[in-house]
Amino acid sequence: MDLEIVTIGDELLLGFTIDTNAAHLARELAALGVRIVRRATCGDDAESIKAAVQEALERTGAVITTGGLGPTADDMTKPAIASIFGTGMVMDHDILTALRDRWRARFNHELPLSNEQQAMVPEHCTILPNRHGSAPGIWLEDARQRWVAMLPGVPREMRGMLADTIIPRLRDRLPSSGRVIRSRTLRTANIAESALADRLGDLARGVNGLSLAYLPGSDGVDLRLTSWDRDAHEAEQVLAEAATQLRARVGPFVYGEGDDDLAAIMLAECAARNATIAVAESCTGGLLGMRLTAIPGSSRTVLGGTIAYANEVKIRELGVPAEVIAEHGAVSHEVARAMATGARLRFGSTIGLGITGIAGPDGGTPEKPVGTVWVGVDIDGDVHAVRAVLPGDRHEIRWRAAQLALDRLRKAFARDTESAAWTARG
């Protein structure tokens, strides 16, 4: 089945809201074997909605929309799409009663008049129950079996309704061949996209008929393999074989798969080793500590940290010798090592991580340009440091510096101190 997605909302076009709905729909439907052939976004005016959905219907005959089902004047999705099917709008009194009961129960007052609009639905439509919010979904279908499913734009509601109503409906409509679209993602850190392609060589464009996409981000470059039009068992088998081949080429840089978070991985590794962590951060300003403590159960491993932005704090709180800073500068191999050791000793942990760098946009020099970061790792007194010149703006540099620290800890555990990619050992 081919399908198109239309997400609706001025806030999406203006960039104030990130369109996570389309991405979630694409992932979930692909796993079902539905091919998303096009995604479009339009504003809240009726003509734009009608044009986008009508064009999509003509191409595929199957469309899912999100957004524009609320109670305000800019919620135009239902009447705009109803006009495509040549049908008018009617009041659904069952929905109206449910809305009134919901407002009395939740807010202890009567339903506002504006909210009654949510009970207006296209004639001859199928109501899609919404257990996660107030706006019901709508299914409209014509005699040619062309259909549009309208879902709310609120991500939590949309995801719940997709699982509750849309996926079961589509599963019943799909042919019994059992063909699916499946992906598998390898997550890498501290290696550039071009360097990955060089290492992959003849696998860089795909593996055994599987497509291969490079997805660079602040965490690193994800390698996504995709299998098209195979049954589920065969797809999983060929994806596993292809992932093994990729790991054979770039293994030292792979830290996980899917949605794996390197902070969570390292906390699990530390817990398995009965290790504890303390951090000392300069340019990242607590970002590394935030990433670690965002993981449930991190209190068993993370003892504490110091934001040592000023040199005086590095000296007073972490014991970094003043003469070392004077001789080598705050952003240096020596200071990163001293910060890592200072964190370990101050908090009594088995591991100390230290980060110092220049996040920009100012402060760089020809010798130490913006993006220069040193990371120190101290494991029970065994200390090393690495340098990287990280790309991006201030936010990206800081995030990548925290990721670099986590990755250096991973490699220290693996006794891998050589695979520095675009980092340079100190």
In short:
The protein is α/β, with parallel strands linked by helices and 426 residues long. The chain has helices spanning 10-14, 20-32, 46-60, 77-84, 93-107, 155-173, 193-200, 232-250, 262-272, 287-293, 311-318, 322-328, 333-347, 394-413; strands at residues 2-8, 35-42, 62-66, 89-91, 120-122, 126-128, 137-141, 147-151, 179-188, 206-207, 210-217, 220-231, 254-257, 277-281, 302-307, 351-357, 372-379, 382-389, 423-425. 40% of the residues are buried.
Characterize the structure shown.
With 426 residues, this protein is of the alpha/beta class. It folds into three domains: 2-173, Molybdenum Cofactor Biosythetic Enzyme, Chain A (3-Layer(aba) Sandwich); 179-257, Alpha-Beta Plaits; 262-425, CinA-like (Maf protein, Alpha-Beta Complex), CATH 3.90.950.20. 40% of the residues lie in helices and 26% in strands. The chain has a six-stranded mixed β-sheet, with helices on both faces. Strands 15-14-16-17-18-19 form a six-stranded mixed β-sheet, with helices on both faces. β10 and β11 form a beta hairpin. α2 (20-32) runs parallel beside α6 (155-173) and α3 packs across α4. The radius of gyration is 27 Å and the shape is elongated.
- What is the SS-derived class? alpha/beta
Tally of helical segments:
14
Main sheet characteristics: 6 strands, mixed
Distance between the termini: 55 Å
